[in-house]
């Protein structure tokens, strides 16, 4: 009986220790995430020259003076599935007040297009390919998906790391209009 209590105590101590280490790592990693609201000077959106699904080059400068939402996604990302559908719904809802661009991370055209065709969003959003993953790296990406919200002056107003639903999208889009 005494041996059972010792084993039980060791298991509990191990769980508590692992939990504290996990919480510590989470706190440390969150301290390294730049908080957009603390910046004194807004950051400009990174420029890009990427191809759309038809092979046409699209540049950030093509959208000068317009509020933008730029999402970085991939077919392997489970959170991106619902989010791309929600972005398509938001694009319909806001119309020409905002432009939503979805940039695929390092996947072949056939993979990306098959995925967006399955979701029914291929003709609903501006879809771009980034075979070298430069855009994701330029925004300091480290989670999936990642989305930046850019005002008409080309300044990043918000950088969302991780998934969001259509209601959160609406609130963030309203901030850049």
Secondary structure topology:
Layout: H1 2-31, E1 43-44, E2 49-52, E3 57-59, E4 68-73, H2 78-94, E5 99-105, H3 109-119, E6 126-130, H4 134-138, E7 146-150, E8 155-161, H5 166-176
Parallel strand pairs: 4-5, 5-6
Antiparallel strand pairs: 1-8, 2-3, 2-6, 4-7, 7-8
How would you portray this structure in words?
- With 177 residues, this protein is an alpha+beta fold.
- 42% of the residues lie in helices and 22% in strands.
- It has five helices and eight strands.
- The chain has helices spanning 2-31, 78-94, 109-119, 134-138, 166-176, and strands at residues 43-44, 49-52, 57-59, 68-73, 99-105, 126-130, 146-150, 155-161.
- Helix 3 (109-119) links the parallel strand 5 (99-105) and strand 6 (126-130).
The main sheet orders its strands as 1-8-7-4-5-6-2-3
SSE order, as H and E? HEEEEHEHEHEEH
Overall residue-averaged pLDDT value: 86
Number of domains: 2
Q: What's the CATH superfamily of the largest domain, by name?
A: Glutaredoxin
- Tell me what the CATH architecture of the largest domain is: 3-Layer(aba) Sandwich
Biggest sheet character: 8 strands, mixed
Search tags:
8 strands, 5 helices, Glutaredoxin, single chain, 177 residues, 42% helix, globular, eight-stranded mixed beta sheet, alpha+beta
Short description:
The chain is α+β, with helices and mostly antiparallel strands and 177 residues long.
